[in-house]
Amino acid sequence: MVKIVWTDASINDLKEIFEYISEDSVRYAGLTVNKIYLGAQVIAVNPYTGRTVPVFNKPLIREILIGSYRIIYRIKNDIQVDILRVYHTARL
Q1: Which of 10, 56, 63, 84 is the most exposed place for a label (fewest CB within 10 A)?
Q2: Alpha carbon distance 92, 6 (integer Å)
Q3: What is the DSSP code string of 4-26?
Q4: 83: domain range?
Q5: Domain with 9 in it: what CATH number?
């Protein structure tokens, strides 16, 4: 099992997701951010579970989909994975 490190940028992404959704529903915003956070835990068990991000085409930069969100991460080494960004799939 590897350690998951959320970068400042990815934490900011989660905050922005929360703020955007909370304009309509604070409860749903919390549920969504929690779903993204918990969904990312699958990376700790198998860092290679996600697909390579086509735009980068580097085997250590990968992504998984959690609902409508892309979690982009980098396999730093055998013991750590860095969550780089979290995007809604509608964003380019």
Answers
A1: 56
A2: 21
A3: EEE-HHHHHHHHHHHHHHHTT-H
A4: 3-88
A5: 3.30.2310.20
Q: Which own/partner contact pairs does 54-60 have at CB distance under 8 Å and 24+ positions apart?
A: none
Rounded Cα gap, residues 92 and 88, in angstroms: 9
Per-residue HEC secondary structure of 45-77 comes to: HCHHHCEECCCCCCCCEEEEEECCEEEEEEECC
Which pLDDT score is estimated for 54?
87
- 21-62 pLDDT per residue, tens: 999 999 999 999 999 999 999 999 999 999 999 888 899 999
Q: How many domains does the chain have?
A: 1
Whether the per-residue pLDDT at 92 is higher than 80: the answer is: no
pLDDT at 77: 95
